[in-house]
Structures are given as C-alpha cells and as structure tokens.
Amino acid sequence: MKERIDIAFMLIMTCALVYFCCLWFPVSGAFAEEEKEQAVFVGWDKCKPCHAALVEAYGGFKRSRNFRILEMRGREHDQQCLPCHTTGYAAPGGFVSVDKTPHLTNVQCETCHGPASLHIKATTREEKKKTLSIPRNLCTECHNTHGHREY
How far is 150 from 129, CA to CA, in rounded Å? Predict the structure, then answer.
C-alpha cells in the first residue's frame, strides 16, 4: 500500500514540476507554436501596383479625401474625429499623426479591408484572400447618426 502512495506522490510531483517548468521556461525551437505576424497599415499607395483601377476610381469619391475637412476646421488632432477621417487610427500600425503617418490620412482601402502588410507579402492568390476581410457592422462605426447628413 505504501508503494502505491509513493508512486502516486511521485506522479503528482512530476506533473507539477512539468507544469511549472512550462510556465517559467516557454517552449522554443521546433516545438514552439509559430507566432503570427501582426498586419500593419501600409497606405493605398501600396495597393496601387495591383489594384490601380480600383484605387483610381475610389480616389474620385469625396470620402477618399475627407481628412481635408478636419484640416479646414482645425480639427486634424481631434481624437473624436480621427477614427472616421483616417486609416487605422488607434490600431497597431495605424494613423498616429499627420507628421508621423501622413500616408494614412483619409479613408483608404484598409479602412474597410484591414491592414494590408500581410496581403502584400502573400505570394499566392489564396494566401492573399485570407489576409483581408470586411468585419460585420464595420460601416456603422462611422456611418451613424453622429450629425452627418448623408447617413
């Protein structure tokens, strides 16, 4: 009977030791889970080489140039306005300021499709399709009753 207790005790201690070692020393090398690279915003100039016609067409819409409204009203630093007048505001790799990220002013492709850095790096059509998506209810984040007449 004492032998069974010793075996059970050793088994419990071994499991505890393995558990705590995994907490303190993360698995690395071949057994480590591959960390996914986080996509960042790149600006629509990076979209033009493959999607020139779409970027050109979208550039004709007034919403593609809506940051100028903030500049005309002196609100280009207004944190309440920036989410709907820039690309990726408050998101990793998104708009920070006109000085730091001028290529992310206005509502661009990535505002709806998400950050495109991984899309650009993808080598096959299937990989590219997996990198971009349009989340549900994305439009209503800006297109709401916030006093904008056309919504």
Answer: 32
Model pLDDT, residue 130: 87
Q: Which residues of 21-35 are buried (b: 16+ CB within 10 A; e: fewer)?
A: eeeeeeeeeeeeeee
Q: Which residues of 87-114 are buried (b: 16+ CB within 10 A; e: fewer)?
A: bbbeeebbbeeeeebeebbbbbbbbebb
Burial (CB count within 10 angstroms: exposed 0-12, middle 13-18, buried 19+), residue 53? exposed
Please name the residue ranges forming H helices in the chain.
2-24, 48-59, 67-72, 82-85, 109-113, 117-121, 125-131
Choose among 39, 34, 35: nearest CA to 130.
Answer: 39
Structural domain spans, the chain = 2-28, 44-141
CATH fold, domain 44-141, is Flavocytochrome C3; Chain A, domain 2 (1.10.1130)
* Span 36-92, pLDDT tens digits: 788 999 999 999 999 999 999 998 888 789 999 999 999 999 999 999 999 999 998
Q: Distance (Å, rounded) from C-alpha 66 to C-alpha 106?
A: 5
**How many Å apart are CA 39 and CA 132, to the nearest integer?**
10
